[in-house]
C-alpha cells in the first residue's frame, strides 16, 4: 500500500508541474501576454522566410510583440530591484527596447545599446505613474507629490549611470586610437585607474624609430663620404620626410599618428658624426613638457673595400665611404627634446 501511495504521490507532483507549465504556455484568454510572445515568435519565423522590405516589416512587428508581451508579463507581479522602486521587468523591457532601437544584426550589444539601457528602463518605470486605471480605462494624470521625488531620483540616477557607461566607452575608444596614452602616469587622475601593468615605453614610438633607422641606414651605408656629409647637412628635412612616410605607413590604423613627430640631432665626434633619431610625442601628457624616444647612430668614414670598421685618416679621399651603426636599444626620456646644436 505504501508503494501505491508513493506512486500516486509522484503522479500528483507530475500533474502539478504540468498544470504550472500549462498555465505559463497556454493563454487563459486570447488577450494575454502569451499571445503577444507567440505572435513575436511567429513573426520572426515568417521574417526568415521573407525577403526585402517585407522581411523588415515582419521583423519590426515581431520586436513590438516581444517588447509588449515581456512588459505585460513582468508587470503582472512586479519584483523590485532591492533598494529602488524600479521593477526588474522594466530593466528587461528597457534592454529589449534599447536593442530594438539601437542594435543591429551584426552586433546586438553596441555601445549605444548599453549606454541608453538604464535611462530607457527608468523611463519605462516612470510611465505608469502618469496614468490612472488599467487597460482601456486608463486616464492621464500627474504623479502624486510623494511619487515625483522618487521618479526624479530614479531618472537622475539612471542618467548618471548612462553617463559613466558612456565615459567608459569614450575612454576605451581613446585607448584603442591612442595606445601611447597607456604609458602615461594617472596617479593624480580622479577618473582613470590602471588595473593592469602596461609598457613603460610606447610601442608606436619604438616602431617609428625601428622602421626609420632601417631606412636611414639604407640611405647612408656604403655611400661616398662627401655625399653623406651633404645628407647630414640636410638631415632635418630628409629625416622629417622619411619619418612622415614611416608614420603614415605603420600607424595608419591609429588616430594618434598625427601626434608623433620625427627629428634628427647631429653632433660631431672624432672622425665622424653622431646621429640621434628622435620620435617626439606631441599629444596630451601628464608631463607638461611631454616625452620623446631616442635611438643613436654612429656615422664614420671608412676606406672602400675594407672589411673592418677602421676609420680612414683622410676622409676627403675619393675611395672613402660611410659606415653607419645604430644602437638596438631605444631610450625613453620625459621632457622636451634637446635643441639642435
Task: Record keyword descriptors for this entry.
single chain, 341 residues, five-stranded antiparallel β-sheet, two-stranded antiparallel sheet, elongated
Give a count of the beta strands, DSSP E runs of length 2 or more. 7
Category from helices, strands and their pairing: alpha+beta
3D shape: elongated
| Ends apart, CA distance between termini | 108 Å
**Which sheet architecture does the biggest sheet show?**
5 strands, antiparallel
The percentage helix is: 40-55%
Number of helices: 9
Work out the strand percent.
5-15%
The Cα radius of gyration reads 35 Å
Unreliable sequence segments: 306-317
Mean pLDDT: 81
List the helices and strands in order. Answer: HHHHHEEHHHHEEEEE
Chain-wise SSE layout:
Layout: H1 2-25, H2 33-48, H3 52-76, H4 88-102, H5 111-126, E1 131-132, E2 139-140, H6 145-177, H7 203-220, H8 225-233, H9 235-250, E3 260-269, E4 272-281, E5 291-303, E6 320-326, E7 331-334
Antiparallel strand pairs: 1-2, 3-4, 4-5, 5-6, 5-7
Helix pairs in contact: 2-3, 3-4, 4-5, 5-6, 7-9
Tell me about this structure.
This protein starts with a helix and ends in a 7-residue tail after the last strand. About 4% of the residues have low confidence. The chain has 341 residues and is an alpha+beta fold. A hairpin with a 6-residue loop joins strand 1 and strand 2. The strands form 2 sheets. Strands 3, 4, 5, 6 and 7 form a 5-stranded antiparallel β-sheet that branches. A two-stranded antiparallel ribbon has the order 1-2.
Brief account:
This protein is 50% helix and 14% strand.
